[in-house]
Amino acid sequence: MLTPIDVRSKSDIFNAELRGETLESETIVNEAIFDWRLILKKGNKKGSLHGSCGEMVIDGDVVRKH
Description:
Blueprint: E1 13-19, E2 22-29, E3 32-41, E4 46-53, E5 56-63
């Protein structure tokens, strides 16, 4: 995970489930549980990432580099 201030953090992925073009999962960071949804678009080269933990919401576009 890359935060807006360019700090990298690693955490394990739990309860990953692929539903069509959507990958849903959870991560735990400092005892906080984050829910994630990655929606793939345009032949799986682009997508959008949505994350939430309590009232905090994270949204962003993602691009596959390789």
